[in-house]
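User: I'm writing a short report section on ligand binding and want a predicted complex to refer to. Could you take this sequence and (2R)-2,3-dihydroxypropanoic acid and write out the structure as tokens? A short remark afterwards would be nice.
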Amino acid sequence: MPENNRTKLLIARRVPQAVAARAIDEFQAYVTESDMDSWSVVDFCKTHNVQAVLVGKKSGLQKEHIAALPPTVKIIANASAGVDHMDVAYARKQGIAVTNAPDALTECTADFTMLLILAAGRRAAEYGKIMRSGWGKSFGMTEMLGKRANGKTLGIVGFGRIGRAVARRAQGFGMRVIYTDIVRAAPSLENGATFYPSVREMLPHSEVLTLHVPGGGEPLMTKEEFDSLPKGAVFVNAARGALVDEDALYNALTSGHLFSAGLDVYRNEPNVDPRFASLENVFLTPHMASATVETRDQMGFTALDNVAAVLNGKSALNPA
Ligand code: DGY
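Assistant: Sure. The structure tokens for the complex follow:
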């Protein structure tokens, strides 16, 4: 790639074609063909004096990586909403902006959460398995029954953009929505949902529970929290695997306390605890809640918008 005075941007994770094309058009962009690891990013930045980096999970930058970056780097952009692969506070201290893409994936993630709620409640994994093995036996009126969404109470932990988008969809399915967050939302955002001041107080009322908070720190869902859910509850997680004690979840699923679970995220991705695959009452997907053509383009474009803003001396559009 010819050297010139344009901003040097390293795209350290694979991005959709449209995003790569725009990056090449607007910046002096180096676009990786396979996801780079963190130290390769640092080495590349040093060798090429880049000013901006777009990273993903594998190329996430912790304190030791950020400390080793050259002073040319002004922004680390993420195309994701979650930034648990980054030491945001340390980067900020070093004067490096860190951005994310919080709006781009809201609608897709909320759609996918409904998919998990419906698939887990309506035994989609089991029905799929039956059909793929040839069916061959009609079911009677009392066999293979699921749980309907209509009329159930959905507990939402985290009433941010995604939590609220899930609430809107769930109301369309005739669910009663309750939620908990650090503070109560304004009535216009609440839109009829009922606030509980703590997870602990909300859980016993949550026939279906879905998480929409960032990961990191101690798990939010341990044995105590699963035990607090009503017997026969459906548990859904499209947020982060670190929010869940997976032994406790496994036990709640095998003891019959939970009816089922719909999971898109896991503690040890991409190597999921194999016990989950052996359970009939779990609907599993490989961290794909934002995986549509439209949303992935939008996530990448948001990262590029942030790079352009910061390198033009403006504030980051989406500081993480
Ligand atoms: C996000 O953006 O946080 C999604 O989970 C994809 O990583």
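A remark for your report: The pocket of (2R)-2,3-dihydroxypropanoic acid is lined by residues 80-82, 105, 290 (CB under 6 Å). The mean pLDDT is 96.
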